Amino acid sequence: MARTSGTKPPKSEPCGPHEHPPRVAADLKGSDAAFERAAAIFRAAGDVARLRLLARLASGEWCVSELAEAANTGLSTVSQQLRLLRSEKLVARRRVGKHIFYRLADDHVLDLVRSALSHASEPRSKRGT
């Protein structure tokens, strides 16, 4: 049936709770502050270059100059990316003389990077519609 100009389709009625199976609560609770913090972490890791840095750091500690060389980019660019990742507590650093070494802040970051890359590598049909 074709709609005529200016007419709206009929509104559908909202469904009631009795029309759905009972839900089992996921163990994903957090305060508003925790959700804000998690969103900031995803924003920081959500850039391809920064995600690549995190993936490199999954193998252990790297000097900034090594990271810049591996990324084929400038030292200042890598330093800025690392500064942002450090501000979100995704990476930690230590200084030895003139060298600054970075590593993942903890195993949670490693798990996050592994899970994201694993999920992204799945065939689309496995992820659902």
Helix-strand layout with pairing:
Layout: H1 32-45, H2 48-57, E1 62-63, H3 64-71, H4 75-87, E2 91-96, E3 99-104, H5 107-121, H6 124-127
Overview of the molecule:
β2 and β3 form a beta hairpin. This protein has 6 helices and 3 strands, in the order ααβααββαα. With 129 residues, the protein is mainly alpha-helical. The longest helix has 15 residues, at 107-121. The chain has a domain at 43-120: Orthogonal Bundle (Arc Repressor Mutant, subunit A), CATH 1.10.10.10. The protein has helices spanning 32-45, 48-57, 64-71, 75-87, 107-121, 124-127, and strands spanning 62-63, 91-96, 99-104. The model has no long low-confidence stretch (mean pLDDT 89). The chain is elongated, with a radius of gyration of 22 Å. A 3-stranded antiparallel beta sheet has the order 1-3-2. The relative contact order is 0.11.
